[in-house]
Known about the structure:
Layout: H1 3-14, E1 27-32, E2 39-47, E3 50-59, H2 62-75, H3 82-85, H4 88-95, H5 104-115, E4 118-119
Antiparallel strand pairs: 1-2, 1-4, 2-3
Amino acid sequence: MNVKNFKKIWEHAQLSPYMGTLKHPSLRGVGENPLCGDTLRIDFAVRKGIITDAKFTHRGCALSAVAASLLVESLIGTRVTTLQKLDAYALLKLMETPISPARLTCVLLALQVAKSARKK
């Protein structure tokens, strides 16, 4: 991992502007990783089919927090239908660093939670 990628990952893990909750989310996804105990909730604000804001709350490893932050960042401004089109490859590409097979479930928790989001 190069220094640029490390800095980006550190910032998303510790200082993500997307940490928190939305007061009145349009959609909410909740999930956990049974292998390690990470929990994640993602709130989405949607207006006219577009994701206008998103926040997440998280308890667990830094890698799952980074994945949630990067995913949320990439979804703001996109159509809500984009959620169901997401795949693991797209999320791994956002990470910009190799992920070991043992840590893959940590990263993919964000994808699972985002795709499970339903009307609140």
